[in-house]
Structure formats: C-alpha cells, structure tokens
Amino acid sequence: MESKKRILTGDRTTGKLHLGHYVGSLKSRVELQDSYDEFILLADVQALTTHFNNPELINSSIYDVAMDNLSVGLDPNKITLVQQSQVGSIAELTIFYSMLVTVNQLRHNPTIKTEAKNYGYEDMTYGFLGYPVSQTADITFCNADLVPVGEDQVPHIELARKIVRKFNDLYGTSIVEPQVKLSQVGRLSGLDGNAKMGKSMGNAIYLSDSAEVVWDRVRNAVTDPARITVKIPGHPEICNVYKYHCVFNADEAPNIHEMCSNAQIGCVACKKKLNEALNNLLDPIRERRAYYESHRNEVRDLIISGTRKANVIGDANLDAIKEKMHVTI
Ligand code: TRP
Fold first, then answer.
1. C-alpha span between 237 and 120 (Å, rounded)
2. What is the pLDDT of residue 195?
3. Whole-number mean pLDDT of the chain?
C-alpha cells in the first residue's frame, strides 16, 4: 500500500477558534483527514511570540484549540495532535534554518508587517520577527507535503519552500518542500463591517459560542446602510450578511440576492436565515464540544500520545539532517 502524504497545519494557542479559522483551515482539515496523514500543531511556542506575558492563557488555550479541532469533526483515530513546545526537533531545526534567512527577508514579509502594525510593535522582538522560520521547522520536522491555510499564511509557506530548497542544496538533505493548500473562501470579514474577523476586534463568532451569542452578533450586523426601510431595494454585493450567506448558506444565497435586490426580503428576515444556517453548522460542533469538555482527560491523552509520535518522527529526521550537516561527534 502506498503511504499517505502528510499534512501539517496548526493554530496559535491564544484563545478559542472562530468562524474565520473554520473557513480558513479547519474545514479543509476535516475534508482531507481521510486522504492524508494529518498533523495538527497546537502552536504554543508561536503563541509566545505575541503573548509572552500571558503564559496562563496560552496553556489553557492548548485544550481549547484541541477541542475546537476535535469538535469540527476531526477524528482522533485519524489525526495527530501535537504540542509544539514539547517537540525538541522543531526548536533545533529553527536554529539551523535561521542561518539561511536574512533579517530583510523577514522584515519584508507582508504578514509580519501587518501583524506588527496590528499589535502596535514599533520594535519587534527577535522571536516575533523570526516566527516564520520556526513555522518552517513546524512544517518540515515531519516532512509535511501540504499545508492547508488561509491566504495570510502564504508568505510563510513561500519562505519555508525557499529555506528548504537552500538547505537541501547546501547540505544534500532531502527535506520535503511543502505546498500550500489555500482555502476556497477568501478572508472572512467581521459582521460589524471590519475587514477581518479577529479575537482582538471583538467581532468574532467562536465555534463554541452559544446560539444566543451568535444571534446577538448576527442581529447587530451592519447591512447596506442605504437601506433605511424594507421597501428600498438592497445592495447585497456590499452587504456583510449577504457575504456570510455566500459562505455559510451557499444554496440559498442566489435567492436571497434576488429577493434583497427587489425589496422582497427585509434585513431582519435575512438575518434570521443566516442565523439558522450558522446554527446548522454549529449545533453538531457544540454537541461534540460538550463531550470533550466533560472528557478532558481524553483530550490530554490524545495530545500526549500524538506529541510522542511526533517526537519519534522528528528525532529520526533531525538525526539524519545533523549527520548531513556534519553536526556530529
Ligand atoms: N501561523 C499560524 C496562524 O497564525 C499557526 C501555525 C503555527 C501554523 N505553525 C504552523 C500554520 C504550521 C500552518 C503550519 O494561524
């Protein structure tokens, strides 16, 4: 039997995951879990790059992020959960890779620039500036072939490919050059009209949010501002709620477009439809989450055994790499 290709992807453990994460990566993780050997990284070291002053949050988020991944339908018998900080080979590879990356390369990375601006960093830490290097180690310690991510992560995968090529050329190693698998849906904007759904923006709908919270977000969503009464035809192309229909209620979206443009449906009715679609998605997720919340030891065991498996693979790969690099005695 031909062995499956490997996926590695992951999340920073800085809080619970939201719908933006779902459309950006979690959905593809579920779709690909049968055809790939899938590793999900709980990126608690990368979390430190922005949340170094809140280690308690990072630690408790390890469980939240693991449960979010399991709740969307990732099967613990198929996927491997890995706690980044407990995989020594990732840290060692990061150091080796860092010799092949210039500071300017990192400073010009568009995602680093945007994030630094959002976090208000005037002078970035070495760890933050260099997290794409550490992410390259995340992806390659297990020779992952494919990385399903949202578009903001593309510069990082491009850098990873560059580093791997250079490294293999220099040392004669055969580290796998990873490929990106971009989600079909672009960035999910916030229902409040913000360009991005984000933890820090206060506009996120979390996978673990109750129906009440979801309706609160949807009810308060900003729609077409020109549509003061139901009788005025709407402009779905500029409406956040319509954008969400396209993503979460795709079958009904053309019909909603038509009705809104002809003033046949009001914003409240339209929001109720979206609310229903979101709950159809979230209900089974909530149900699985309730199970894992009451079986935290099971989650812990999955993380520990997955991390152990990752270490066996990572250590073997690292040994071979060090041999080629003449980092031996
Ligand atoms: N940087 C990713 C994010 O913010 C999380 C991440 C860490 C990741 N390591 C990774 C993603 C490796 C893909 C592969 O969402």
1. 32
2. 74
3. 95
- CATH fold for the domain made of 6-188+296-325: Rossmann fold (3.40.50)
Spelled out in words, what is the top-level CATH class assigned to the domain 209-288? mainly alpha
* pTM given for the model: 0.94
d(CA 31, CA 167): 32
Q: Residue 11 C-alpha to ligand 1 middle, in angstroms?
A: 5
> Domain segments of the chain: what residues?
6-188+296-325, 209-288
Average the pLDDT over 138-154 and give the result. 95
Task: Check for a shared fold between 6-188+296-325 and 209-288.
Answer: no
Atom of ligand 1 nearest to the CA of 24: 15
Summarize pLDDT for 187-198 with one digit per residue, the tens. 888 888 777 787
Pocket test for ligand 1, best of 32, 83, 140, 156 (most atoms within 8 A of CB): 156
Q: Whose CA is nearest to atom 8 of ligand 1?
A: 10
CA 10 to ligand 1 center in whole angstroms: 5
